[in-house]
């Protein structure tokens, strides 16, 4: 029963990316499952954090260097800020959906969310004294029960009005 429950939870929380899912199952195989653990996994924030951790590992496997996570400003939050191999700074929004019943994860990154991410990227660049001459892009990592999709250049910078 323990094995079944552990695999069921992992299949709901982590996509079936073989390398990453197996790493995660190793982490949880020694975790004593109890009622509190099950309740925590149902929390949107907890699932979101697991999705972001999975996205970070996925990005690192693909050659990205993670610069910052959950950067917050008065404008909003950026899930992951990473540096690509071609020295492009990537502002990455991570979206997880257990099923497509409420639409695909990437569909949740609407115009309003894009604008907030752009404003927050302005704060990040100012705080870190980053030049406008550097290359920037806005990516979305869409995680579903079975897939991780990395959409590079998912949207363009939206200038202030």
Helix and strand layout, with pairings?
Elements: H1 2-13, H2 18-29, H3 35-42, H4 44-61, E1 65-73, E2 76-83, E3 89-96, H5 111-127, E4 136-143, E5 148-155
Parallel strand pairs: 3-4
Antiparallel strand pairs: 1-2, 2-3, 4-5
Helix pairs in contact: 1-2
Key features?
5 helices; disordered N terminus; single chain; Trna Endonuclease, Chain: A, domain 1; 161 residues; alpha+beta
Brief digest:
This protein has a 5-stranded mixed β-sheet.
| Poorly predicted residue ranges | 1-40
Oligomeric state of this protein: single chain
CATH architecture: 3-Layer(aba) Sandwich
Structure annotation, total helices = 5
Strand % is 25-35%
Could you give the distance between the termini? 57 Å
Provide the structure class.
alpha+beta
CATH topology: the name is Trna Endonuclease, Chain: A, domain 1
Q: How do the strands line up in the largest sheet?
A: 1-2-3-4-5
Principal-axes shape call: globular
The count of β-strands is 5
Largest sheet: 5 strands, mixed
């Amino acid at each position: 029963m323990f094995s079944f429950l552990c695999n069921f939870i992992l299949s709901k929380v982590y996509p079936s990316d073989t390398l990453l899912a197996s790493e995660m199952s190793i982490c949880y195989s020694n975790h004593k499952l109890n009622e509190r653990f099950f309740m925590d996994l149902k929390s949107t924030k907890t699932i979101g954090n697991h999705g972001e951790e999975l996205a970070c590992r996925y990005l690192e496997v693909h050659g990205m260097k993670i610069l910052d996570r959950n950067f917050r400003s008065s404008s909003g939050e950026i899930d992951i800020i990473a540096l690509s191999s071609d020295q492009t700074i990537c502002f990455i929004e991570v979206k997880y959906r257990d099923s497509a019943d409420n639409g695909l994860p990437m569909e949740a990154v609407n115009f309003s969310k894009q604008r907030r991410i752009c404003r927050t990227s302005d704060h990040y660049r100012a705080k870190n004294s980053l030049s406008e001459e550097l290359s920037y892009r806005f990516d979305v990592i869409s995680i579903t029960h079975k897939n991780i999709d990395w959409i590079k250049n998912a949207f363009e910078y939206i200038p202030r009005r």
